[in-house]
Specification:
The chain is mainly α. It contains nine helices and two strands. It has a two-stranded antiparallel sheet with strand order 1-2.
């Protein structure tokens, strides 16, 4: 019987393998064109990890530390320049403001002196006015202008303080520590008061007794201030 089985098997030929699942076959066929991609693993019929290199910058790499130093130096120069012009503009503005304030202060002082002078003399170049009246023989007007000039000069040098309502005796007391200057101005005060308040006449000689000491007055004022 065994011989019969062998013969039957021989006649039947080799045994055929069972056909695979059609869906698997279809999937493999679909993946056949993926085999050329690097991420497909044919051995495991799966996906494998692919190392991707970062693209290199096509521009050449330049290592120039001196350019950075030059940039910082240029920035520092620009900042110094800006600071210089800001400071210069500030100082010019301050100087202009000081000059304007000084001019304003001088105008205020001028008005104050006009109001404070004990006489009709208009504040201006009192010395020139006194000399003009002297040449013309108007000694009354000349002594008023001369005394006004002396008071203004003393006030400018802060030896006295011209103020409305103050008397000539108060001005002389302010000059107390400066005896020589006090006596010289005192002589002019006496002549001025006789003419202006007392309405007394004045001749050339009496006016010249004050006028001829004008140089001495200027010298004493400078020495006192210095």
């Amino acid at each position: 019987m065994n011989a019969v089985v062998v013969i039957v098997l021989a006649l039947a030929g080799p045994m055929q393998e069972s056909d695979p699942d059609p869906s698997v076959v279809a999937g493999r066929k679909a993946l056949d064109h993926w085999r050329r991609y690097p991420w497909y693993d044919a051995a495991s019929d799966g996906i494998r990890r692919v190392e991707i290199d970062s693209p290199k910058d096509p521009r050449p790499e330049i290592s120039t530390p001196w350019l950075q130093k030059a940039a910082w130096i240029l920035l520092a120069i620009l900042l110094v320049g800006v600071a210089y012009y800001l400071v210069r503009a500030y100082l010019l503005r301050e100087r202009s403001g000081d000059e304007s304030a000084g001019q304003g202060d001088e105008a205020v002082q001028t008005r104050r002196r006009i109001e404070a002078l004990n006489g009709p003399a208009a504040l201006g170049d009192l010395l020139a006015a006194a000399e003009r009246h002297y040449r013309d023989g108007r000694y009354r007007e000349a002594i008023i202008c001369l005394f006004g000039h002396e008071l203004v000069e003393l006030d400018k040098r802060q030896l006295i303080r011209l103020a409305k309502g103050k008397t000539n005796r108060q001005y002389l007391r302010e000059l107390g520590p400066r005896r020589a200057l006090q006596q010289l101005v005192g002589r002019t005060v006496i002549v001025f008061e006789d003419v202006f308040f007392g309405n007394r006449p004045i001749d050339r000689a009496r006016f010249e007794s004050c006028w001829m000491r004008l140089t001495e007055f200027d010298t004493l004022v400078r020495e006192t201030v210095g």
